[in-house]
Amino acid sequence: MSEQKRDVSRRDFMRGALAVGSAFGGLTILGASARGQAKKALRAGLVGCGNRGRAAAINFLEAGKFVQTETAIVALADVYQKPIELTRERLKQDGCDIPDGRCFAGFDGYKKLIDSGVDFVLLATPPVFRPAHFEACVKAGKHVFMEKPVCVDPVGGQRVIAAGEEAAKKNLSVVAGTQRRHDTGYLATKKLVDDGVIGSVWGGAVYWCGASSWITRKEPGWSDLEYMMKNWINFVEMSGDHIIEQHVHNIDVMIWFMGEVPAVAVAVGGRARRKTGNQYDFFSVDYQFPKKNFVHIQSLSRQVNGTWSRETEELIGDKGRILAKSVYLHPRKRVELPKIEGHDNAYVQEHVDLINAVVKEKPVNEAEQVASSTLVGIMGRISAYTGQPVRFTDVAKPDGQFGKLALSPTAEDFEKGEIKLPAEEIPVPGTAEV
Ligand SMILES: NC(=O)c1ccc[n+]([C@@H]2O[C@H](COP(=O)([O-])OP(=O)(O)OC[C@H]3O[C@@H](n4cnc5c(N)ncnc54)[C@H](O)[C@@H]3O)[C@@H](O)[C@H]2O)c1
User: Fold this and answer.
1) Any idea which fold 183-338+372-416 has?
2) What is the pLDDT of residues 209-253, one digit of tens each?
3) Which one of 113, 145, 147, 351 would you pick to mutate in the ligand 1 pocket, going by the greatest count of ligand atoms within 8 A of its CB?
4) CB 3.0–4.6 Å: which of 87, 298, 328, 386 could bond 49 by disulfide?
């Protein structure tokens, strides 16, 4: 029996597994330990059965195979039945046959899924729902994988950090969908930076510039709620704007490699081409690290068709530089990366790390880290919208200048069905309310 399999049958996990055994009957009994004790698969439920959620569920199953630990997706929740059915159908190929009784449609589906006896919850809805869903998972004692970004406003970020602290007290594991932190190439690059190979970092730039995102136009007969749900990626209240919905990945690498969040953001941004919603097309943020030799790192994010594309992170040190997963000594001598063990797909490796943390009883908790990266993106967004510098403390603390900012409608409003379309007005710096 492998190390991982032996670990699965350990005291704490088995207690949880056996406690819900009757709810699952023989379905998840996939093996027996050396002592003849029945062993259950690690059971996960997926909330948000869209493109990423479906992929994350498959990644979870693949991660289980990689570490030779039985995993199963046993419950699905989505506001709509159609994505549930699509996901259910797809997961049959991986041996997961999810009965009607464990498919939960509606805005309260996540609550029923959490109560259905799962050990893990995978959260992959639009970001606006993340703080409420994450809080509920932690309250119920579930291990969590949650997609980035994890909030759309400062209040949401603080909620995720607080729930993360509760998760730590309960020894729960929490992994976030900022997958570069689980990517063997990035980990090897980080090791070289930590070993001083590029020297002290003196500046850098992080980019996600590319094409515009998808849009869904409002159809006759749709309520405001339905329109916002179907065009979520174009509303700041739902996605947080593309500086966090997409570019948070690169901002996260910046923070990870610098070892701290930037103290201040000074940003510009604007909109020229977008057709729906209320977001900007582009942001340029000067992130400042006064405690690190006053280093400035520029963040550029743009979603405009027909413009130059670049998605990477570059840090310049006095001896060399990194460009994403490549390391160079000045001027251009490539440095070989050390070998880091792991799955070659970071989307799988993040679940490997989650599963190993639970099985080996060494909790991992990325809640604060991903919430901070999201809040740093929000600093940039608020600075661009208003034309004012924004400090991390302005968003991270309730008594900060923007610390009580909560966009509306909220996840709770959606649950109540009380949705009024926000004005599709674009913030004008110098005059903008955030
Ligand atoms: N890590 C990555 O590289 C990566 C890549 C793509 C997307 N994402 C993130 O994953 C998340 C989902 O993105 P997507 O592309 O799958 O979106 P999507 O629109 O394809 O899917 C979202 C799904 O969530 C469902 N949903 C919405 N609100 C819900 C609620 N309250 N309860 C239950 N279900 C709900 C929707 O009906 C839909 O099926 C986003 O946060 C996105 O930023 C991460």
Assistant:
1) Dihydrodipicolinate Reductase; domain 2 (3.30.360)
2) 999 999 999 999 999 999 999 999 999 999 999 999 999 999 999
3) 147
4) 87
